[in-house]
Amino acid sequence: MGYAPAGGLDVYYEEHGEGDPLLLLHGALATIETSFATLLPALAKSRRVLAVEQQGHGHTRAADRPLTLESMADDTAAVLDHLGTGPLDVVGYDLGAGVALHLAARRPDLVRKLVFVGHAFDRDGFHPGVLDGVAQLTPAMLAGSPFERAYAAVAPDPSGFAALVERTTALETGMTDLTTDEVRALAAPTLVVIGDADLVTPEHAVRMFRLRGGGVPGDLVGLPPSQLAVLPGTSHAALLACPDLLLGLVLPFLQAP
User: Fold this and answer.
1) Considering its fold, how many domains does the chain have in total?
2) Average pLDDT, stretch 172-190?
3) What is the pLDDT of residue 220?
């Protein structure tokens, strides 16, 4: 556990296990534990797992600057530069997937492979009404939730949860879209993962999969570098609740040449 400097902010990070480095990026309003409590220990059996808590989340204080995917990607890059990791594999869930995508676009030298779980590269990728619902979210709706309890347990200022909710809803509803050309140009092979009852439409996941070079029949030379997984009977919240299934998808993808 420790803190790394990033744009005037001290960003909290953790390291677990040994092996090739793997970065985990948590979801909105979450901490490392609330997103990855079941997945991280299994990954750490064979990998050096790094995880960060973004500005205003968990152990990391809020910064006096906007909460954006770009700023969090830059903060994450600063942590990795501080630790001297070099290129590594990245698994992002929910908001963390958006951060991971922007990290891959802004710092391709840091991202070897990308696992993109439960998010979209533009706002059209969400089911109709999802972002309207996010816009109506209030701190009172989350009173007593696992998110609020986890925040209160570790945050430097436990009274800051309401402000985090407001800043996060503004980020999600006004997030910066990546263009199709930007997604197509990413260097990192990508595994796109959604649930079949996710917040993201299957059509968008397929679109991203094709932009990342997938959807082409394999031949004697080999398979395309990117992959798509739609987990059956799985909601957005349940994506990380089935670690055995995810490990069976993620580890072979990351281990492939």
Assistant:
1) 1
2) 95
3) 57
Give the separation between CA 214 and CA 210, rounded to whole angstroms: 5
Q: What is the pTM of this model?
A: 0.96
Q: Residues 124-176: pLDDT tens digits?
A: 999 999 999 999 999 999 999 999 999 999 999 999 999 999 999 999 999 99
CATH number at residue 37: 3.40.50.1820
Question: Residue 62 has what DSSP assignment?
Answer: P
Judge contact between 233 and 196, C-beta under 8 A: yes
Residue 105 Rama label (left phi>0; alpha psi -120 to 50; beta): alpha
Range of the domain at 100: 2-255
Cα 58 from Cα 31, distance rounded (Å): 5
Cα 192 from Cα 173, distance rounded (Å): 22
Length of the chain: 257
Cα–Cα distance list, 182 to 123, 179, 228 (Å): 15, 5, 19
Counting Cα atoms < 13 Å in the Cβ hemisphere of 136 gives: 5
End-to-end CA distance of the chain: 31
Whether the pLDDT of residue 219 is over 60: the answer is yes
Three-state secondary structure call for residue 49? strand
Rounded to whole angstroms, how far apart are CA atoms 157 and 151?
9
pLDDT at residue 80 above 70?
yes
Instruction: Kindly give, in sequence order, each residue whose CB lies less than 8 Å from that of residue 203, ignoring residues fewer than 6 positions away.
Output: none
CA-based Rg of the chain, rounded to a whole angstrom?
17
